[in-house]
Amino acid sequence: MESLWNQLDQFTDAPTKQMLQALVKRKQKFENYAAQCRRWRWASLICLGLLCVMIMIKSPEPQLILQEILSHTFYLFWMLATAFAYCTSYYFKKKEEKSETDFHKLRCEIIQKSTDLWPQPDKWKARESVFHMMKHKYDINLYFESK
User: Fold this and answer.
1) How far apart are the first and last CA of the chain?
2) d(CA 134, CA 83)
3) 23: which residues sit within 8 A by CB, 6+ positions away?
4) Could you tell me if residue 147 is inside a domain?
5) What distance in Å separates the CA atoms of residue 51 and residue 65, rounded to the nearest whole number?
6) DSSP notation for 31-89
């Protein structure tokens, strides 16, 4: 990856290179939070499903489900685990949304300042190659501001 950034020296100056590196870091941070959120959502869904299945299997009658839940601490522990998994997924969802807005703001800033970062006649072709590399290597679209 470092050699890729060294190749950018011929196309960009140092501040632009730092902006692009920060953009890649923010994208990775956003993707990490999104993966964590998905992981905890699945964990909470599995915990809830297993809790429901265990209650339905162990409960002798449908009228006694509440009594069954309150009489065994195992069910209470399982409900706490489900609630913890859900709250953790909610936490990571908020972090994901914040990191997505940070990433999108920096991406839009680079797009808006592209005429300043790459002056028109001499480095405009370099801009195109940098945008192409960012699109194909990191899946970051610098052509348009829309998400």
Assistant:
1) 25
2) 40
3) 103, 106, 107, 110, 134, 140
4) no
5) 12
6) HHHHHHHHHHHHHHHHHHHHHHHHHHHH-SSGGGHHHHHHH-HHHHHHHHHHHHHHHHH
Structure tokens at 18: 């730092």
Contact between residue 122 and residue 10 where contact means Cβ atoms under 8 Å apart: no
Number of domains in the chain: 1
Q: In this structure, which amino acid lies at residue 79?
A: M
In a domain, 9, yes or no: yes
Class of residue 107 by CB neighbours under 10 A (exposed 0-12, middle 13-18, buried 19+): buried
pLDDT tens by residue, the chain, 147 residues: 667 777 777 778 888 889 999 999 999 999 999 999 999 999 999 999 999 999 888 877 878 888 888 888 999 999 999 999 999 999 999 999 999 999 999 999 999 998 888 877 777 788 888 898 899 999 999 988 886
Domain hosting 74: range is: 2-138
Q: What angle do CA 18, 97, 27 make, to 5 degrees?
A: 30
Please give the model's pTM, rounded to 2 decimal places.
0.87
